[in-house]
């Protein structure tokens, strides 16, 4: 028995044009924007600025990679902003009030991130609350818990406490190194960003565990019948998301240098946006690590460039919103491929 | 023309049909699911519509009820050809439908009265303010047509609180508002108890006597025997049979279950398995069914024939680790077998080709190779890293052995035809080299050549003598074509168990019939809610 072959499909010019736009449109826009700023803004093309942009966007990108994991298993996580904010305050509290070194604070925060992810997974997988609603609820709980722990206050080194004494600890150098350190010219946050992106890309694209995660998102029932432990993989994805959100929070806290209670508030929308942009990049039609990283870089270029050309900071959200809308149009409307974002149980094809 | 009867329903029946179909066909893409159906429905008559899964019953109902306007051919109401482009239009012309899932017809949160008059609430001509009093009056009038006298206090309650049989009566009352000419009922008793079904039949007989034409879809021969004036059988989208009382049940079943009127032939290559691979002992397949004992032997293809609700899928799910037996035990290779999940079954060499390809088997947008390798990620990888050469070679083997028509392992599964997708799914599971392969309706929507190909691979699988295959189907010809041993399953009980060369189609159909006619009343054996 030999396999028959099909004649190659002939696509019309319009179809091929649309496919080209879907595949290369986003990269094209990013490159064009970069070119525009490189030509018009001398400051933009410095090495410092390149690393500055990447460093600036690293927390968003890492939280976005977390959201990407949740989307990979057909869900969504709206608690990444709250988790990151929680990490900022808990790290500060551990060092300043608890008088611990940065390494301990980092350990506590990462553990907290895993626990938050575990809670989300429990609510979604075991209690069967829809992902959108469960993570919305947990983000309230996380923010509230954070405020209770820190008495609603931002924590800074040598702050005075309620009893009039001075806080025993301070932001330690090893913790601040997360933001200020660098290897050669490359800042630490950029290294963490790149390593996490590469690691997630490898896991998702090259390992059987990544394939199983994608299978759960593509057709959970088929995956289950194929022997994949669907609930286990969904739990892993949410725990991974919680962990990445807490890493984002660690970087954010080190940048701010204090336990700002409002930190992380704006992170959620950006993180979800870059994950969704990542789905559309290259017309892949499914969440992926490089795409998410590229989405984050596009936003960094936009924000930096807009600031340089003198646009007010409040114009940034408008630009981000337009980028996200275009990305969604690419993913859902123009793409011939099925898009496998099933966040909030809405499926498209 | 199939319809040649002259109705004998008394003075109410007229010689011209209420609704007549001529040359109605429906195709989804290149897949023709209803072919040139010509039928007349007369006033004051109950027509039973029969057919196995995928025979075209629901497609026909959708066209008649306006739910699928993309049909070809003519549907005429009172001799006027209309294009039934929407359910509202169909209802306006007197064609009213009660769909199978009663719960879908009830809006929870609205009162019972408002649910009865739901169509009015949606109507544009209705006053925008809800008028509880008017709804109550209208609802009472509608329920009175069924002889129901529900008190106002009940009518004001939330419709979600109705029992399933009362909800069934509610949607029936709603369907009867505006005095329809043709009433379509899709398996109306599937959720009713025997007594509730009996109550419904009394209502339906009374409605028939008022001159209503009724189309009654059911799998239950007892009900049809008790109720219908005429039986129409669909198979493969064609009208295969149409007859008046008294019904020749043997012939009806034959026409319903068989695929083609091929010459009876005794298979010469029937194998007899030796060792028992799987043993089911004392496991009830359905809540009300007796405990079942069953042996699956290595070296043979076992065909299990049964209609919807016979317990086929339940049996497959038990063995594949998707469900656990309520009581009794399972054995595999002589050892206790208690799979908790599909991966446990897989580890023991038990694989399942599930009933619903799209929902349960395919990964949309993925390549053929990735669709095939999904249960074998561990074997396809080294140190957790996937080796695409291993995936591709497994896929190529599947493509070659089953003759899958595709551009290659990297082609998207979405670009394959249904039959070729099914070959990929079957090939995926056979490539595991299973001990026991379970295939639930593997030939649905699959053309004859793909069917043969799949059947041949099953025979190859068992030929060595240490593996078994179980094909579960509602089509007697599929079973006769592929199976060495045939089991007829009715309502969770074995009615026949014989090797293919020891039995024939007539006996198999007879086994069905024996089980059905034993219960000749209007009370179906499986008529209990789950």
From TrEMBL, chain A:
Molecular-function GO term, any one: transmembrane transporter activity
Record carries keyword Chloroplast: no
Alphabetized UniProt keyword annotations: Cell inner membrane, Cell membrane, Membrane, Transmembrane, Transmembrane helix, Transport
Pfam entry (one): BPD_transp_2
Domain of life: Bacteria
First-listed, main subcellular location of the protein, grouped into a coarse class: membrane
Membrane topology: Multi-pass membrane protein
Listed transmembrane segments: 20-39, 51-71, 78-97, 103-125, 132-150, 186-204, 236-254, 266-285, 292-312, 318-335
GO cellular component terms, semicolon-separated: plasma membrane
Localization, UniProt: Cell membrane
PANTHER family tied to this protein: ABC TRANSPORTER PERMEASE PROTEIN YPHD-RELATED, ABC TRANSPORTER PERMEASE PROTEIN YPHD-RELATED-RELATED
Name of the molecule in the record: Monosaccharide ABC transporter membrane protein, CUT2 family
Source organism: Agreia bicolorata
């Amino acid at each position: 028995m030999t396999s028959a072959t099909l004649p190659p499909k002939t696509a019309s010019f319009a179809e091929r044009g649309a496919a080209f736009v879907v595949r290369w449109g986003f990269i094209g826009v990013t490159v064009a924007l970069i070119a525009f700023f490189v030509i018009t803004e001398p400051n933009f093309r410095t090495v410092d600025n390149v690393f500055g942009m990447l460093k600036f966007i690293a927390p968003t990108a890492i939280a976005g990679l977390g959201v990407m994991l949740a989307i990979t298993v057909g869900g969504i996580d709206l608690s990444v902003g709250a988790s990151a904010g929680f990490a900022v305050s808990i790290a500060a509290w551990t060092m300043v009030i608890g008088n611990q070194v940065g390494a301990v604070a980092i350990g506590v925060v990462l553990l907290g991130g895993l626990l938050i992810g575990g809670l989300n997974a429990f609510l979604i997988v075991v209690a069967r609350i829809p992902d959108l609603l469960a993570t919305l609820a947990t983000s309230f709980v996380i923010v509230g818990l954070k405020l209770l722990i820190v008495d609603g206050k931002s924590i800074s080194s040598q702050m005075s406490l309620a009893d009039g004494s001075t806080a025993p600890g301070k932001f330690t150098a090893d913790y601040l190194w997360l933001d200020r350190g660098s290897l050669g010219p490359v800042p630490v946050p950029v290294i963490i960003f790149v390593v996490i992106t590469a690691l997630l890309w490898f896991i998702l694209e090259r390992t059987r565990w990544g394939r199983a995660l994608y299978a759960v998102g593509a057709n959970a029932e088929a995956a289950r019948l194929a022997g994949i432990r669907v609930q286990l993989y969904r739990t892993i994805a949410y725990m991974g998301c919680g962990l990445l959100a807490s890493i984002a929070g660690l970087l954010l806290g080190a940048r701010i240098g204090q336990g700002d209670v409002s930190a992380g508030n704006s992170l959620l929308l950006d993180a979800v946006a870059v994950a969704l942009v990542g789905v559309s990049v290259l017309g892949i039609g499914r969440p992926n690590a490089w795409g998410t990283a590229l989405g984050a870089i596009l936003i960094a270029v936009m924000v930096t460039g807009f600031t340089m050309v003198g646009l007010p900071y409040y114009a940034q959200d408008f630009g981000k919103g337009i980028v996200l809308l275009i990305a969604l149009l690419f993913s859902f409307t123009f793409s011939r491929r099925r898009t496998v974002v099933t966040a909030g149980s809405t499926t498209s094809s | 023309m199939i319809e040649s009867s002259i109705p004998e329903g008394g003075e109410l029946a007229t010689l011209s049909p209420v609704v007549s179909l001529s040359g109605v066909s429906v195709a989804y893409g290149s897949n023709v699911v209803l072919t040139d159906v010509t039928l007349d429905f007369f006033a004051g008559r109950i027509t039973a519509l029969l057919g196995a899964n995928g025979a075209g019953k629901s497609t026909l109902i959708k066209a008649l009820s306006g739910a699928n306007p993309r049909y070809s051919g003519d549907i005429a109401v009172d001799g006027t050809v209309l294009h039934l482009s929407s359910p509202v239009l169909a209802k306006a012309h007197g064609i009213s439908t009660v769909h199978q899932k009663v719960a879908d017809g009830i809006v929870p949160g609205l009162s019972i009265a408002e649910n009865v008059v739901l169509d009015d609430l949606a109507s544009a001509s209705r006053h925008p303010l809800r008028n509880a009093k008017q709804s109550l009056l209208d609802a009472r009038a509608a329920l009175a047509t069924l002889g129901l006298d529900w008190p106002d206090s009940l009518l004001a309650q939330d419709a979600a609180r109705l029992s399933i049989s009362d909800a069934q009566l509610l949607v029936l009352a709603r369907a009867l508002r505006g005095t329809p000419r043709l009433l379509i009922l899709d398996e109306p008793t599937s959720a009713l108890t025997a007594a509730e079904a009996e109550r419904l039949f009394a209502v339906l007989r009374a409605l028939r006597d008022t001159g209503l034409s009724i189309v009654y879809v059911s799998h239950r021969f007892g009900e049809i025997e008790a109720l219908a004036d005429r039986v129409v059988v669909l198979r493969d989208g064609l009208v295969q049979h149409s007859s008046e009382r008294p019904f020749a049940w043997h012939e009806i079943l034959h026409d319903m279950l068989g695929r083609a009127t091929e010459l009876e032939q005794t298979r010469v290559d029937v194998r007899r398995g030796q060792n028992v691979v799987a043993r089911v002992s004392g496991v009830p397949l359905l809540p009300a069914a007796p405990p079942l004992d069953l042996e699956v032997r290595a070296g043979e293809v076992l065909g299990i024939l049964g209609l919807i609700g016979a317990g086929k899928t339940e049996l497959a799910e038990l063995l594949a680790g998707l469900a656990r037996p309520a009581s009794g035990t399972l054995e595999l290779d002589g050892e206790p077998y208690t799979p908790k999940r599909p991966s446990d079954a897989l580890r023991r060499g038990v694989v399942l080709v599930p009933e619903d390809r799209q929902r349960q088997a395919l990964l949309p947008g993925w390549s053929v190779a990735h669709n095939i390798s999904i249960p074998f990620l561990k074997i396809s990888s080294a140190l957790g890293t996937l080796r695409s050469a291993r995936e591709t070679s497994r896929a190529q083997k599947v493509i070659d052995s089953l003759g899958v028509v595709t551009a290659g392992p990297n082609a998207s599964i979405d670009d394959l035809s249904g039959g070729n997708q099914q070959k990929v799914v079957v090939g995926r599971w056979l490539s595991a080299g299973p001990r026991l392969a379970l295939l639930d309706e593997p030939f649905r929507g699959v053309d004859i050549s793909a069917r043969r190909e799949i059947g041949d691979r099953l025979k190859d699988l068992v030929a060595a003598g240490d593996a078994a295959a179980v094909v579960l189907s509602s089509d007697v010809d599929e079973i006769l074509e592929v199976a060495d041993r045939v089991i007829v399953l009715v309502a969770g009980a074995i009615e026949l168990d014989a090797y293919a060369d020891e039995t024939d189609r007539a006996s198999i159909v007879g086994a069905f019939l024996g089980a059905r006619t034993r219960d000749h009343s209007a009370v179906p054996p499986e008529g209990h809610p789950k």
